[in-house]
Every structure is written in structure tokens, then in C-alpha cells.
Amino acid sequence: MNGLNERDLVLRMPGGQVMVSSLERMINASRSNSLWTLTFGLACCAIEMMATGASTYDWARFGFEVPSASPRRADMMIVAGTVVRKMAPIIKTLYEQMPDPKYVIAMGGCAIAGGPYVYDSYTIVRGVDEIVPVDVYIPGCPPRPEALLQGLMTLQTKIRAQKLQDLGGAP
Fold first, then answer.
1. pLDDT band at 27; cut points 50, 70, 90
2. Where does the pLDDT of residue 15 fall: very low under 50, low under 70, confident under 90, or very high at 90 and above?
3. Alpha helix (H) residue ranges in the chain
4. d(CA 79, CA 133)
5. Angle at CA 151, nearest 5°, toward 40 and 32?
């Protein structure tokens, strides 16, 4: 299309401009900028997660407006903190109740790999990815709010790059 590559959105023509896009790109842009979060704070990382949603860092300006207490309204689950074996079936159930497409962020060293507690206890899960598939890992103990914002923006980039076939859409 006259030098238009896949990344261009605006085609400049004599007398004006025409916005060119695909339905896939529009759907992914909408999904990435309107994520509802199921916050699952288990330990000290939850304090940093709450700080990220508060007025100083305000994750709402990035499109994460609604922290939801119900998995049926959530697109994304943030698992923040130490996951014990007794909590694992609950996390799995909540994940299964979320509508597709759904995304998971593992926040903190404990959610990613069990943290410092994994060596002294048989009850600690060695990462939430043993229970549910994780899309973005945010390291730290606890990670700063800036790190969570970076992880959220990384998830947005990942969502924008998805293909509809990957999500179970039309071929």
C-alpha cells in the first residue's frame, strides 16, 4: 500500500489523512488500555501494590482503573506475596473464574520463586507459575511501585502484540 508498513496507523494522502488500522489492532488497543485487576495481595508486596494504585503513582492513568474484588469482572490477576500450598487451590479457582483473555502478573520474589521462605518450609509454593500461567514477572522484595507500573506497561505491550487466533478468535 504505497510504502505503508504494518506499524503505520496514518496514511498521508493529498488533501488529507486516512487512518488505517486492522480490527485486531483496535481490539488489542482497547483491551490493553482497559484492564480490570483482580488484586490478590498475600504479604508485604500487597502494600506496594496498594501504593501503586494510590494518588502518588495512580495506575489509573495507564488504564488500570478498576481493582475488582470479583474474578468474573477481572482481566488480570496480580499475585503479590508468598503463596502457601493451602492458598494454591483458591488461586487456581479464581483464575478459572476469570473470563478469557486473562493475564497474570507475579509480583515479588515470593510469588515468583518462593522467596527466602522456600528453604525452611514445605508449605511454600516455589512460584505461582506452578499453579497458573504467568505473563509478567516483577522481581524485588518488595518491588517498588515504579517496578509494578513497568510490569503493567509490559503487559500492555504484550497484549497489543497478540493475534486474534491466539485468543480463540476467527482464523
1. confident
2. low
3. 23-32, 45-53, 88-97, 109-113, 145-160
4. 12
5. 90
